[in-house]
Amino acid sequence: MKEKIISKASEMFLKLGFKSVTMDDIAGEMCISKKTIYKYFCNKEILIAESTETVHKQIHEIIDTIISKNYNAIEENFEIRKMFKEMFQSSDNSPIYQLKKHYPEVYTTVMDREIRECNTTFEKNIIKGIQQGLYRESINIKNYIQFYYHLVFTIRENISSEKESQKIELEILEYHTRAMATAAGLIELENQLLNYTI
């Protein structure tokens, strides 16, 4: 039952927002009593913390699956971007923006976890791109990871509209890729942009 509650709560939080969804709403959706939810979660913040951890695991499992398909480095980043777009397309408000505003302690935990995971993913992608001749060899990998990370999460933290966040994040991905790309990388980037639907 605990896993079912987390699953339903995660779905509702992402779609309707962390602030607006109540324990009553979750209980009503699941046709269970609120008391049943409180049996597993003594307050909403703990439920949010566990829900965000579950979503984090799901996201990174999907990212690992995308990476395992051996796309080239640029295509890999666009496939990951598509995954985020599909996962959050039903959200009106950016989940990260809401977490920061309404549940700052949970937000800090989420971001610490994301920094560790994302830094590893970004680093592997850049190394792969260099090996494939799509990114320049002279890149300071550590700095480029920081640049990209800060751009993406600054948008996530400060723009409430999920649709607007997605649009700007695509522009950030283009900016990030152009900064690293070789001539071959620029050709691949243009192909990806041509085939990407917002």
UniProtKB/TrEMBL annotation:
<protein>
    <submittedName>
        <fullName>TetR/AcrR family transcriptional regulator</fullName>
    </submittedName>
</protein>
<keyword id="KW-0238">DNA-binding</keyword>
<dbReference type="GO" id="GO:0003677">
    <property type="term" value="F:DNA binding"/>
</dbReference>
<dbReference type="InterPro" id="IPR009057">
    <property type="entry name" value="Homeodomain-like_sf"/>
</dbReference>
<feature type="domain" description="HTH tetR-type">
    <location>
        <begin position="1"/>
        <end position="59"/>
    </location>
</feature>
<dbReference type="Pfam" id="PF00440">
    <property type="entry name" value="TetR_N"/>
</dbReference>
<dbReference type="InterPro" id="IPR050624">
    <property type="entry name" value="HTH-type_Tx_Regulator"/>
</dbReference>
<feature type="DNA-binding region" description="H-T-H motif">
    <location>
        <begin position="22"/>
        <end position="41"/>
    </location>
</feature>
<dbReference type="InterPro" id="IPR001647">
    <property type="entry name" value="HTH_TetR"/>
</dbReference>
